[in-house]
């Protein structure tokens, strides 16, 4: 007679229960294992989404839970889409997205291209370059406010040094024309290394022998770049754009710390606006509709983009 | 086309010699096959000539010009890489046309199309011209890789095991084709393989490399009939040369340590007794595995021999090779 724990459990199980357990099909057992995850997913992901969609058709306010909730149909959607302020935040977001992605891709790829050359200490340089990415966005936002400070800020002094302008004569954060660029510069400083790392992975995936073949086939460096390097790094680059795009669409912490959405609402990105509507003005129904609109926008853009990405990868 | 000359070429990788003082002349219009096992320095030699790698000491001359400091493009070489190295996002057609699109050549479009079609025909890949390079089998990629070299008329062709991943039929077809192309165009071709049939059938000259050293250079026939060492003798010949202690047969010269016997150097029917262990009938020939004084000897006999396992056959060496303790030929 064996006395392993399992045998003891088996003996202690009442005959009827044992028969029932033994009678479970593989399919049932599989469901038992997957059920907790599915339950969690439904509870924290799917249910809130559906509930948000439901609320978006009402005038519900979460700080007045006892008020009667009224169905307002598409009125929330109509109000959002015809609101000039909302469109202004959309514009601010688009400006932020387009310029951060453009700058990060250009600079990131350029850095990756340099780092990929074999030279002494390139590991050290990679580590140094990657540093900003490891900081907390709120911290980055906070210390860029010091860098942008007109009286003591390093940024203003550097700009002044190269252009001869008065360092105290402009304020990156206080000026309505400069503030949108202030957040673009800070985000680019922080996230360019990320794009660089992805580009570096792409560059390293190209075997040397392909360049050697091109060398023997008498292709110039420029032609090698456009016929080998670019096409083979492109899928990686597009992936970097996707990551940065999704991340920056929901950008909040860095910008709130840096400019607080101001001056006026020139740097109020949609995520910041949404947070104010939902948790400062407590217009829950309205902000739910806002959230649904953003969700559909991001989801739609991302789907189109992923299709394009797959096409590039299959080439 | 051009003559290729290496003088005292040495290349070290860490403490190991990739190439050790190699001096060799590849005559203009010759087909030179480099033989040797992995790590002997065959590929390194090609890379030295192509300029993809540079010698530590020694010089490479192509067409009488010192190649020091010249890039692969300036040397005008076409190379077939062992790992194919196709441009993965281009079609087969674009891959084949790639070298012709070099601004140095200024080939007209019609000429490019004609050459690509011609090469594709030769290599039996015409039906794959519009496929992506990544959508090919290994053998097809290898043929595209050969084709990419053949579309040009460079000073030298360098080929690194170009037929290794083809099936037997295609390999023998392409052996004939390659030899034909080389002979008709008068191209100089440096070819790396460890397939001795390729060496015997295509080469005008064979170079045998061992641990970075060129141990023998000559015509395949010369190499076969007059090897300088046990190592060189073992490179050619099917079945392989039998190497036995020199004293198993009488008549060894002074200082001989081993005797080397190719099948045709074993005279059957007189001499000493050997036992037949196995009879391998290959169709056009029959191989005999013999046991002779605790040594195994493999030789060839009449295709329709009546010999069977366990029979006894008399053997005697004729015009055998003798090697000293270091493996060098002494007689």
From TrEMBL, chain A:
GO BP term, pick one: transmembrane transport
Keyword set, alphabetical order: Membrane, Transmembrane, Transmembrane helix, Transport
Family matches, as SUPFAM superfamilies: MalF N-terminal region-like, MetI-like
One Gene Ontology term, aspect cellular component: plasma membrane
Top-rank lineage group of the source organism: Bacteria
Subcellular location(s) per record: Cell membrane
PROSITE patterns reported in the protein's UniProt record: ABC_TM1
Parts of the chain that traverse the membrane: 29-51, 96-115, 127-147, 178-203, 224-246, 288-306
A Pfam cross-reference name: BPD_transp_1
Residues annotated as domain ABC transmembrane type-1: 90-305
InterPro entries: MalF_N (IPR035277), MetI-like (IPR000515), MetI-like_sf (IPR035906), Sugar_ABC_transporter (IPR052730)
Membrane topology per record: Multi-pass membrane protein
Major subcellular location class: membrane
Family designation: Belongs to the binding-protein-dependent transport system permease family.
Protein name: Carbohydrate ABC transporter membrane protein 1, CUT1 family
UniProtKB/TrEMBL annotation, chain B:
UniProt entry keywords in alphabetical sequence: ATP-binding, Nucleotide-binding, Transport
Protein name, entry field: Carbohydrate ABC transporter ATP-binding protein, CUT1 family
The keyword Transport is assigned to this record: yes
Domain ABC transporter: from-to ranges: 4-236
Keyword hit for Phosphoprotein: no
Source organism: Jannaschia pohangensis
Gene Ontology molecular-function annotations: ABC-type transporter activity; ATP binding; ATP hydrolysis activity
A GO cellular component annotation in the UniProt record: ATP-binding cassette (ABC) transporter complex, substrate-binding subunit-containing
PANTHER family reported for this sequence: MALTODEXTRIN IMPORT ATP-BINDING PROTEIN MSMX, OSMOPROTECTIVE COMPOUNDS UPTAKE ATP-BINDING PROTEIN GGTA
InterPro entries: AAA+_ATPase (IPR003593), ABC_transporter-like_ATP-bd (IPR003439), ABC_transporter-like_CS (IPR017871), ABC_transpr_MalK/UgpC-like (IPR047641), Mo/tungstate-bd_C_term_dom (IPR008995), NA-bd_OB-fold (IPR012340), P-loop_NTPase (IPR027417), Transp-assoc_OB_typ2 (IPR013611)
Domain of life of the organism encoding this protein: Bacteria
Family of the protein in this entry: Belongs to the ABC transporter superfamily.
